[in-house]
Amino acid sequence: MSVLHDLALGFQIALTWQALVICLGGVVLGTFVGVLPGIGALAAISLCLPLTYYMEPVHGLILLSGIFYGAQYGSSTSSILLNIPGTPSAAATCLDGNPMARQGRAGQALFIVTLSSYFGGMVGIVLLVAFAVPLARFALTFGAPEYFAVMLLGLVAASTASPGSAVKGLAMMVLGLIFGMVGTDVTSGAYRFTLGQIELTDGISLVAMAMGLFGIGEVLSNLAAPDVPQPPNRGFRLREMLPSRREARQSVFPAIRGSLLGSWIGALPGTGPAIAAFVAYATEKRISATPERFGTGAVEGIAAPEAANNASVQAAFIPTLCIGIPGDAVMAFMLGAMIIHGIVPGPNLISEQPEMFWGLVASFSVGNLILVLLTLPMIGLWVKILNVPRHVLYPLIIFLICVGVYSVNSSVFDVLVAVAFGILGFIMTMFRYPAAPILLGYILGPLVEENFRRTLFISNGDFGAFLSSPVAVTCLGLVVVALLAPAVLALRRRQTRAARG
Amino acid sequence: MKSWKNTLAAVLALLPVTGLAADFPSEPVTLVVPYPPGGNVDSAARIIAPKMEELLGQPIVVENRAGAGGMIAAEYVKNSDADGYTLFMAANGPLLFAPMTMNRPDAYDWKTDFEAIGTVSITPMALTVRKGVDITGIDDLLARAGDENLLMASPGAGTTNHLAAEKLKADSGSAFRIVHYKGNAPALASLIGGETAFSFDQMSVILPYIRDGSVVPLAVTSSERIEALPDVPTLKETGKFDFAAVTFTGLLAPASTPQDAIEALSAAMNQTLGMEEVKSRFADLGSVASPKSPEEFSAFLSEIDDTWRPIVAEVNANR
User: What is the rounded average pLDDT of the residues A2-23?
Assistant: First the structure.
């Protein structure tokens, strides 16, 4: 079994003490930012990116991904205790988690959520192991037209499917495309939108932009937000957290269904853990014999979405690592981080750098185990963290962001860019525009353009080349569907409303 | 010959200990890298820094100032005090051609604005064809490439790989077309996947594919044959081409840096590059640790500049 051999290779890397320490650091930091409402995985990942320059690339990626999936574990804590999701992906968990807490069952909710998360994460990892190699082999046959079509699909799907208004998502994606165009054109070497600034000839810095939008922006919006509810002032004993036998039984099948749904959704381009969690929640409610219990503290309503968002986080690595196409903004950032490290994710990654790929995958399973072992005993600590005054925490985060941005390139200009994007992020949050599509447009836009032009170059200007393969035709067809679907849905809604009214 | 050079290097290396140590260096030395952390140039700086630090007895700091094709770092060093404490970790593009390709020809000139210290590493390339194309000789390739629309994969406009292709085209009159990718990995994927047919690639990148038979090597671009591929001729050996195409990393100081500082740095660097551990770390990157005296480095730069400036100018004018 070559898969076993590959996994053994991976564990040799993931179980070295350096990798273990880094993985532990990543998941703890991830849980930390996950617990804190308002500061998401992206802010923490972009904050840590400069740190990874001083590590082996595989260790750097173990750290960054640890933060990502660690945040999924942490985010449910504040959903349950405060009714505020730590990250958007845990929003569905509020619906039944917080009612459970108000009934005095917070401990049980946290316990079930942690175990469901672990189960979901492991399912996602197993699917990643199973599908990575065949998918990469398939993607090796991709040429410019196929890449163009798949990336365009990712871009459009991600923007229209993001939570909230599809039009706002698309608008932000286009803004991201414009930011992505800044710099030197790959093919001709001409400058575009550099405003005469020599610092902009290489484009806007990914780190500065991400830290600004997701770090500074989130801190500013949180400062402007009204007072947050008070967290409880003590932790829980393990005995208080054990669910009853009935609760345990009720959560098994939702967790399994949530894991499968989440893995499938996570592997699709343009989705993310938040969508996975809501779909899983809605599914449980629909198939339940007692849907009226949902929203009042149903165990199924926390087990399914938490399993789903963790499964989707792991499965999201499949397209990113195997084809080089990120599904959501966090994965887009991971892709950017890998490229900075000189690793180009894509069909060649697994065969060329097996230690890298399998080491990372093995570290996921190690990290998930650490998370289960850590989360439950450390609930008390997370509760304390929720009590840290905001006026201490936020200035510290801003300070770290500025140091982090500067350290990448010893550039004051980049710090100013980060501040500018922070203000933009704040304004966008105020008017409820999603920030994630900007990052996606910024990273995928240049790739789409590059492959578009390469297709035409190779075909000598023949536009028929875009429809030269089944993969390309299918994806372009789906792009049209994704663009038209919201409009058609809106039209039908208006018609039904008109018919009623 | 080599042992004589090594002896000289060793003797020179002792000089800072005996006489110059009191003068230079007396404070930390900064190596300014014109790329973000992680790439080949950055790695080269981080390989030599700790060893030179031991030899010179002062901390050596690697500072990344990426941007504008390397011009931000070059101008930063050019405008620093000429005292030997701020050095430019240069490579082909940032040192020689960026002012031309970035359309700021007066920004700096490597001959008048910098003082050569020495080469750090040299990386040769190989010209290879995908196996399925069924070509085994360079003449065959150049004869068929234009007619059959065989595409050449380049890891980016203005890279040494691209310039080598342009020179091959200009010198042979073959009318093949060049497709640009963003970096080595996608260019290589297109070559193996069948979208393109042939390419110039750095040895470290292409060697595994030569070994497993997915590509056929036609020539190497260094002046001498390469140990790993003893049967593959150099471009010069084919008789039709009189150029070598290699990427280098090297260290320079601002112009009019005192001679004793240059000598101390040169001696420490060449001793570092002679260490077995350092050699093997460069070999892992597919490069060769290449000690040179300041004069040899200047001559080496002149040769590269003379060979490639006309090609860069032409590519620049045509874009």
Answer: 88
Q: Which residues contact B239 (CB under 8 A, 6 or more apart)?
A: none
Cα–Cα nearest to A125, from A316, A271, A285:
A316
Instruction: Count the neighbouring beta carbons within 10 Å of the beta carbon of residue A141.
Output: 13
Name the minimum distance, in Å, from the CA of A226 to any CA of chain B: 41
- Cβ separation A411–B185 shorter than 8 A: no
Q: Do A348 and B189 touch (CB under 8 A)?
A: yes
Annotated domain spans of chain B: 2-122+246-318, 125-238
Q: Do B179 and A458 touch (CB under 8 A)?
A: yes
Q: What's the pTM value of the predicted model, to 2 decimals? A: 0.75
CA A497, CA A472: separation in Å to the nearest integer?
38
Interface probe for A, chosen from B40, B150, B182 (most Cβ of A below 10 Å), is B182
A198 neighbourhood in chain B, CB within 8 Å: 67-68, 71-72
- pLDDT band at residue A399 under the 50/70/90 scheme: confident
Q: Does B258 touch chain A (CB under 8 A)?
A: no
Cα–Cα dist A141/B194, whole Å: 8
> Distance (Å, rounded) from C-alpha A125 to C-alpha A134?
15
Tokens of B144: 């068929």
Q: Is the CB of residue A427 less than 8 Å away from at least one CB of chain B? A: no
Mean pLDDT calculated for residue range A30-40: 80
Phi, psi at B124, each rounded to 5°: -80, 165
Would you state the pLDDT for residue B249? Answer: 92
Nearest to A435 by CA among A46, A29, A69: A46
Q: For A353-367, how does the pLDDT look when each residue is reduced to its tens digit (9 = 90+)? A: 888 899 999 999 999
In a 3-state reduction of DSSP, which class is residue A244? coil
B2-122+246-318 has which CATH code?
Answer: 3.40.190.150
Contact residues on chain B for A141, CB-CB shorter than 8 A: 193
E-assigned strand segments in A321-361: none
Tell me the two tokens of residue A190: 């001409």
CA distances A466 to A108, A148, A448, A454, Å, are 54, 8, 12, 11
Q: Is B39 on the interface with A (CB under 8 A)?
A: yes
* Dihedral in degrees, nearest 10, Cα atoms A207, A208, A214, A219: 130
B2-122+246-318 against B125-238: fold identical: yes
Per-residue pLDDT for A263 more than 60?
yes
Q: Which of B71, B181, B190 sits opposite A198 (nearest CB)?
A: B71
Return the CATH fold of B125-238: D-Maltodextrin-Binding Protein; domain 2 (3.40.190)
Say yes or no: B102 contacts chain A, CB-CB below 8 A.
yes
